[in-house]
């Protein structure tokens, strides 16, 4: 943009006088047509407008448009004459006359006009090239403008934000405001860096720059026919002829291979550029070599100027920072992206006589405008953070406006073209657009105050700008006082819910297509409660809910939570969502990413819509090709291409770390000199960050917890299954020169979708088992959506890529899909309650014929009522409704007392005298837990409300399961009017459910038009023991946690299989934890005996001749932070330790264990630690003057010998130091030399 060519371009203060009146001021009418009258006292002596006044402004200056001009450097040879063009351009944008058929050499042709063509302009020039804009000159210009009685002041001067007491523009604008004059200022061109905006005073209207629906592009055609789209305002035509294309050593005989300018060299290195002639540095191009040829340069500004000066026919250059802005060029030129430039380089390197042609620029339509440009300076306000800046955005890209005919079109001294109109970009252009709008408002409301005009512009802006209508942040860590999204997560989720429709977007070509949110016409308010470490304070969450409710939002989507459910009175999301429900606002929350473990969902409140994550019909995969030709397919969103080149593999670099740390590529463990230029194998997915840091060319990763989703990687990387990863590792060990290449990721069709992700948290509901969770599933795997351009797309802070769209997975992504669907339903039914909207989404969900099973949870505990179908949800036919009083009854039925209840409700709610069964709560699903392997017969009671057709009859249909019988009474519901309610009962009976299993069926109410489906689930996943059956008996449990359930159910004792290596614990009943082998012996006896019996003896103490031995549960070294410091230091007794105990605490940690003891037996390093502390205290009593390190040394060097050691001995004292040596073996395989 204009401001980036030189610092003196922000040099005019333009004042718009809205009232149109005639001022002669001593000049003749003929003078006024051409020259502008000076607004001060006339100079002494001979006076001539030609020698004292502004330049020609052509048509826009007709009729006394500019009525005065002042310069504040007349004593230094200054002039008000516009010899740069910037002032003419900005002035005509604000208030230029309407001119037909304007263009820049045929580009952007059309009618040009300012914001208020009837307004007049006074110009004040407080800046001078080479000097800048002194504060005293700026303040003098403000004083003069105020004294002259202007109406609107527009300022195209920029800089760094300063305290208001030291900011001449802020001071001058304050005085103008005091006199009723609004000041409009450009935001600056230093974006997208946060807090880069310089215009921050609250009394100034600060303006960002956005695109228009027209862009100027250019095209490069290579000799092989390849056409590349670039950017430039190129008015020249080469008539379709191809010309020689040269690059590198072919363009110079004048330059050395490296730059002497350190700053330029550093910038070049960032782009992989290391030679001056490739960037076409000043003085590097040989005129004889470049004449009549097209030159390829790795930098734009220096490259274009140098190529023009050297006489090149044209230039193709890289424009990395302003790649999507077109600048006027003095010769045929086009700027390309890095990818485009690489295509040209590849063509040159593979062609004997490379040729190219540069087409004349053309104007094209832009569908996604207006969009705030990346160069436009950003907030937050660094001086007054509570004041949002910038205030508004206005057109500032590729703007055609009047230009000074005496100014260089391109700022190049050798460009002698003279034009009446030019195309510029920058906030210098957006600022006068807003000033013109302010003048337009002023013409209708001349008595309005400056805040009123500013308010009118800000509160009525175009809908694009009001997509995000508010943002709050809460008690974040110091330096994080901003609602700005620095991680991309918030931008992604918000755009998923209600983002605009944007065509042809992708992540580096992946997942290309059209993106849109659930309701593109909706608006967003964001509430930032988490810091960059994903820590979300409870108080902040509750404050955000309060603010959102007060702000009157319609739907709340919360993409945060826990993988463990909390009781509702201790869960801020449940409490906040309850208050939102009471005010008519539905809260949507992701189920969590803790699957597939049963009961892992953390969002279980009945008044919340809990959403699982499922796949879509597009998967993103990646492939690795080994040197032996083997191709393996894995997961990753890898935007990098190695072009088929194979690179050496490396694994288990032990030069910095040993053991498991080297295998997993732990942070700081990879040696750059070893892995650079190689593909490194890492045993965990997180190893990619260390591989990237160390400079590896790529990485092969072993799959971790998430096996069915691809994540963005910062370097060429692929995540393989354990089996395929071992194939790569085996190839590495068995091959002398193992090598491979990693392909760029690709899209593939997933015919099995939608399927719940394995990571998606499962039910059942661990707090209220009779309320099914999750409720629904929605797309949540590999979703393309908007992303914050200042956030690293791979979440690796070293990843410097900046993208507008990225691909994420998780229930954080599925939640806003469902929120968008809820908002969609609400647009059709704004008076519906949260429960009605929730019911509509649940009862119309799609159930895949490919039912999903995994080791832990099946069916509805994975996908809820089904995959959301927003279209059907608009017209569900019947809904299950519930209101505050219903939820209060449910809470009371599940054991909440009055105190806990009021912590949730926030009022004086109390429980009714008669409690209802939780399973009779009017929920759109039916769930019950039953004892294992026992026949069951349970009933559910529900009430539905007719929201479909007034006169309608619904008949019940059961989608059966052979393992249970379902009866519905009545089986026919007849309605005569809308909102009429009907009740029914469902009885479910069956022969029994095995432990840790479930059976399900569905009830469907249908009137021929609507199908209202309600899942019915009977499970035994917790609370499975029947007290009547286990009382007085010893129970066998396959899981160590079964002992707790046996105690709850009243069993006499329990025998459990203990696969857990943790410390032994006290049981609340006669119990024994057996090793797997011994437990299987008991099961074998049980299965082979008609009436098996047993007894459990009281525990006894025995002698352990092997002691002391470090317990298996005790944490191990090596030291993960400082590997050269041995940890732990010592060991001490920590197993089965008898010590004093609190008599008010249960010795088994079970609240139903009512025993009270003075002493108890515990195990753990919590017990060993005080043993050593006591020993240290014992030493201290003998040596009170010893330092901490001396006491520590005494304990370490005198402990019992348990390993090889170095011992210093005097005969009396033995001072022992252990010696540790790491061995380089992995799973019995010999390591190959790296």
Automatic annotation (TrEMBL):
GO biological process: proteolysis
Alphabetized InterPro entries for the sequence: Peptidase_S8/S53_dom (IPR000209), Peptidase_S8/S53_dom_sf (IPR036852), Peptidase_S8_Ser-AS (IPR023828), Peptidase_S8_subtilisin-rel (IPR015500), SBT (IPR045051), Subtilisin-like_FN3 (IPR041469)
Keyword annotations of the record: Hydrolase, Protease, Serine protease, Signal
Protein name: Uncharacterized protein
Subtilisin-like protease fibronectin type-III domain residues: 920-1018
Pfam family, one: Peptidase_S8
Signal peptide residue numbers: 1-28
SUPFAM superfamilies cross-referenced by the UniProt entry: Subtilisin-like
Organism: Liquidambar formosana
Gene3D superfamilies, A to Z: 2.60.40.2310, 3.50.30.30, Peptidase S8/S53 domain
GO molecular function: serine-type endopeptidase activity
Recorded family membership: Belongs to the peptidase S8 family.
Residue span(s) of domain Peptidase S8/S53: 76-461, 480-845, 1107-1199
